[in-house]
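Review form for a predicted model. The reviewer records the input and the model, then writes brief findings.
Reviewer: anonymous (R2)
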Amino acid sequence: MSQLPTYLTIGQTAERCGVSTATLRFYEERKLISAERGAGNQRLFHRAILRRVSIIRVARTLGFSLAEIRDTLATLPTDRTPSKRDWQRLSRHWRKELQRRISGMERLRDQLDSCIGCGCLSLGSCALYNPADSVAREGPGPRLLLHGE
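Model under review:
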């Protein structure tokens, strides 16, 4: 097996990460990743970017915004490859938010299983029953589902 070079072209980086070159340019524009410039102003990515792009992709599928991802990645060092300790710190940073999202998804799953799909005709015991639209005073949106009230 050959040693991975320290710097990869945008095409090599895109291929290794499973994204398009346009995606890498977009991430760079949004300051999620950075590239150095080689001969002819060609983008060259340090191989440590591969992990960052993987984190970005996973975080996006979990619903994190690009701003949240950028702010979190900004806590990583830029002058060296992040260490295990750096990645653990990043993980702790996201842990509370991930747990909040997991709890919300579990609550929604349970409400969907027990209420929306049940077909019951008992509005008196329905967790989503909102007589006289009283929940509207608390603000817009699906408040009973999103906030578990």
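Findings: The chain has six helices and three strands.
Further findings: The radius of gyration is 22 Å.
Recommendation: see findings above.
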